[in-house]
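Re: that chain you flagged

S.,

Sorry for the slow reply, it's been a week of failed gels. I finally had a moment to sit down with the sequence you sent. For the record, here it is as I used it:
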Amino acid sequence: MAPADTSPLRRTFPVPGGPAVRLRLAAPADRPRVRELLERRGVAAGELELRRLLAFDPARRHVLCALAPLDGQDTLVGLGAIEAGQDAPDVLVVDERLAGGLAEVLGRVLSERARPRHAA
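Prediction finished late last night. Pasting the structure tokens below so you have them in one place:
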């Protein structure tokens, strides 16, 4: 994926070996979907952890949901989070149905968006 492919204005991303995903900022209303994704991946998270993950300041932290059209509906297939200025996500959970390609795409987009922006 070329750097321009991670533009903050772009919302749909191709995933090698899987359907294209739509990326968007996570929101508190995503809690049930996030809980389902974590359960499918065998990750235990309590209500407090879910609330903390989804309550963030977009100027300091990016939390993105990856949604794919599966079985006629948008399904949360990935979630990632990164602190602004960091090189790598501190949270990256991907549904195995999309293999390893989604983890690479989501990780790259998060890393690009967390880089400091310099005024021209």
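What I noticed first: The chain has a mean pLDDT of 87.

Talk soon,
D.
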